[in-house]
Amino acid sequence: MPLPLSVALFGLPCLLFLALQRWIVPAMAAAGVPHIVSLFVLNSPHVLFFVGALYAYRREGRSWRLDDLKARFRFRGLDRRGVLWVIAAVVGNIGSYLAIYVLARPVLRLLYDAFPEPEVLGEIMGDAETFAGFPLAGNAWLLVVFLWMYFFNVLGEELWWRGYILPRQELTHGQRTWLVHGLLWTGFHLFSPYNALMVLPGALWVSWIVQREKNTWIFVISHGTLNALAMIRIVKGILA
């Protein structure tokens, strides 16, 4: 996978998220579209990642046998060594994310003030009491909505970025692939510049580990753990 193609495969989704967050979803809100519909629209690219990875896999002439799928997307078992790398990935990813949030807060504030997110995004994602425009308290079905979003967010991205793209990049960039991949994945997050800055250290660290170990599960678990922190808010709000 030559670098221009990699840039396109990371850049076009970035532009799609930018359009959704800055123009399409705010326009939907202004037209009175319910927030829960906007939530599904916001997360539709993750569904495309999931479907696109499977389509690209099939285009390579591969079978739908489970063993072939696991081998191509590098879903390998985790032995003791693998578990230790998972722990290193999770701790490093979450730790660096929080460290940037604390240590670089003035820079993050400048970025956010320069590129503020539309208020409707906060209304859709909610707070301690709401989610997708509904009160959390007593609405357990909202956890199902969150889990749908969570599944495609994590597995959709990991199938596409680490399962399909990373191994192809290795054929071009060799041992430097983790650096190219990590920087491009950070660039993909530039639709939210302050978030891209927080993502950068973990993106490089976990990309290096995954390339070293040739195991996509490491990034799946690391990515999933970071994104699961929002689930705590959802569950607490439902049980309140």
Explain what this protein looks like in three dimensions:
The chain is mostly helical. The protein has helices at 3-30, 35-42, 44-59, 66-72, 80-103, 105-114, 119-125, 141-173, 177-188, 193-213, 217-239, and strands at 130-131, 134-135. It has one domain. It contains eleven helices and two strands; from the N terminus they run αααααααββαααα. The chain is globular. The mean pLDDT is 93.
Shape: globular
| Strand content range | under 5%
* Total count of helical runs of at least 4 residues: 11
Major sheet: size, sense and barrel closure? 2 strands, antiparallel
Low-confidence stretches: none
Q: Report the radius of gyration as a whole number of Å.
A: 18 Å
Widest sheet: strand ordering: 1-2
What structural class do you assign from the helix and strand content? mainly alpha
Helical content stands at over 70%
Brief description of this entry?
The chain is an all-alpha fold. It is built from eleven helices and two strands; from the N terminus they run H-H-H-H-H-H-H-E-E-H-H-H-H.
Question: Which features would summarize this protein structure in a list?
Answer:
11 helices; globular; 240 residues; two-stranded antiparallel sheet; 2 strands; mainly alpha; 79% helix
Could you outline the blueprint of secondary structure elements for this entry?
Layout: H1 3-30, H2 35-42, H3 44-59, H4 66-72, H5 80-103, H6 105-114, H7 119-125, E1 130-131, E2 134-135, H8 141-173, H9 177-188, H10 193-213, H11 217-239
Antiparallel strand pairs: 1-2
